[in-house]
Amino acid sequence: MVSILLSDNLTGQDVTRVIVIVGVPGIGKSTLAQLMYSDSRVQGYFDLKVWVCASTDLNIYTVTKTILEAVTKLPCDIEDLNLLQLRLKEEVTGKRVLLLLDDVWNIEDRIEWEVLRSPFQFCQQGSGIVVTTQSEHVAGTIRTLPAYHLNPLPCEDSWILLSKYAFDGGSLITDPGLEVIGREIVNKCRGIPLAIKSLGILLRTKPDREE
Ligand SMILES: Nc1ncnc2c1ncn2[C@@H]1O[C@H](COP(=O)(O)OP(=O)(O)O)[C@@H](O)[C@H]1O
Ligand SMILES: [Mg+2]
């Protein structure tokens, strides 16, 4: 993903490339986006980086306002979407911008997306928008490049993650029976890191087999 963001060959006339990460809740979309966002190569490449959590009550107006406030670091009281977009356009024009929209779930259709992204057509060539979403519909609506589908963790990695939280990576296993039970529990998490991590934290306080 970093190399896509930094590559010079853009397809079509799009100034801003759009990368979509899609997967069920807790699979690691925001974590992956965060790793990319803070990668040292990415730091140096963009003039402006903005991270917006879009999960609560996203509509074009509120998201545009949030982006503008994040860019200017000032509160904004513009009530008209059109004026808001003009202000944002002024802020991003000529800059190489990375916009991260985390957890987008209610973009209805392509037209809505085109309106939302329109100020970013004035960014410098090579700008990027990264979207994370749990919705296949959203992913299909906004993607231009193939979407990244996150897969569950493999069995052994799941166990390593669980034991990291439950037993400090194994050093707290006092009873070998706990590993057997732990592996059974982790199989039920279906490779979802959020579930594994949460259970690991919980199991840490339950070191005996009965519990
Ligand atoms: N590959 C991974 N290995 C270990 N932990 C992970 C991994 N991916 C995600 N996590 C952890 O799982 C939790 C959920 O991840 P998150 O990125 O918030 O999921 P999502 O954004 O898809 O809902 C976080 O606590 C994160 O640290
Ligand atoms: Mg997330």
TrEMBL record:
Protein's UniProt name: Disease resistance RPP13-like protein 1
PANTHER family in the record: DISEASE RESISTANCE PROTEIN RGA3, PLANT BROAD-SPECTRUM MILDEW RESISTANCE PROTEIN RPW8
Organism: Punica granatum
GO biological process, one term: defense response
InterPro entries associated with the record: Apaf_helical (IPR042197), NB-ARC (IPR002182), P-loop_NTPase (IPR027417)
Keyword Transport: no
Keywords: Plant defense
NB-ARC domain segment(s): 8-168
Top-level taxon: Eukaryota
Pfam families: NB-ARC
GO MF terms, alphabetically ordered: ADP binding
